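Give me the fold.
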Amino acid sequence: MRDKIKLSRYLAIIFVFSFVTCQSPVEDHPHDVQGGHITSIGEIPTVSATIWTEKIELFVEFPALIVGSTSRFAAHFTILDKHQPIRKGAVAVSLIKGAKGIRHAVDTPSAEGIFTPALQPKEAGIYQLVFDIKTPSFSDKIILNDVKVFSSLEAAKIDIGVERAADITFLKEQAWKIDFQTTPVVQGEVFNVISTSGIWKVAPSDQKTLVASTEGRVNFKNNLLEGSKVKKGQLLMLLSSKGLTSNNLETEIKKSEADLDQAESEYSRKRQLFESDIVSKSEFEKIEQKYQLAKYTYENLKLGYSSGGKQVLAPIDGYIKAISVTNGSFANQGDVLLTITSYTSTLLEMQISPSYAPQLENIQNIWYQPKLGKWSSLETTGGQVISFARGVQSDKPLLSLTAQITELVEMPSGSFTEVHLAYGEPLSSYTIPESALLEDFGRYTVMVQVSGEGFDRRTVTVGRRNGSRVQIKGGLNAGEVIVTNGSYQVKMASMSGQAPAHGHEH
């Protein structure tokens, strides 16, 4: 008998048992100190159970519980995130009936992810089997209800039938060594989509173009390369006019400084005369204006100037997008030197057939790939559609739609990305990650985890694709657990022709 109990996110697949919660008191039970023997797993029927909680997966195997015999549990604990074994922690297993029970705890795993506590039942009956695990980062409790303790080996053999073996065996020790992940089949919203492509563009507000404020020879500071990261205020290059007979910045600064000294002296003298009513207000204002102009000219020429020339500083944090001059070349005043972008906001421009014009009025979401192999969406990152064309032209037959992307886009500006535009009202359907699909000549299959180390290959019918998730029209049920990373390795295990040997003793 196989009972399937859904526990929050995951479906608990439990052979022989079902799942409830319990807080009954128990007493400690020593392991083998009363002369009880550990029964070999080959002598009596084996019981196994696989249960998922929010944090972990427990896959446990043990000989059927028989009065007077000590059964040792092989409890495999897997952290669901990244599908890694629990390497540090303590596990206690309790067998409870009413207000009494027996208990055995182990302080460390016997191997990575595997704990082997043992129990020796004293009376036949129906019990609860409780696993308490404590790790440095979390604790969890898993309870199996209606666990049978048999009066004899013969009773256990009669009661426990032979379960159908899974098509594929893939051990925990194998899964823990690779990039492996599982997830449940869930009910979710599925939208109609327009599949197209988009081109990445830098938002105008994130781009700064630097021009030469004076003419001179370009002198790069450090290694300036396209794509180099720069900090606000960082010295990028110098414009040196040293050696030039005309438009020599150093000469102009000295001349401007002399003009300023003369204007300041005249201004101070005229101010005293004005305060003594010897000079008219109009004459004093002309002298003051001349002084202010000389001061502004000098400060503007001096700004960013060093002994090596006029400094060109980064105005923002960002990356160099383009360099328009070469080291040692001559730049005239007003020439473009380089362009810097912060990439804090990116534009995604899409071209769409005019036949979809009515749907563009009801765009619900846009899925895109900010880097190769990763799907994201406007809904999850807070981006928005900022414009779309209302008409077409003879030289531009497609409608243009532009969205603002607020996350870091690792694809270069000008490159393309696959895009799914969701529109209309969603429908409710089963969905799974696209990474779970295996394709053979147009036929799609997934690997369904039917027990801790047992998998079936299931043919599925796919529907709409919404970014990284795909609609399943048939072949799966809600709560079934499927492999999302590592499906190919499980498939290869099915082609080996034999089940692999366990790396641990049960």
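Residues 1-41 have pLDDT under 50 and may be disordered.
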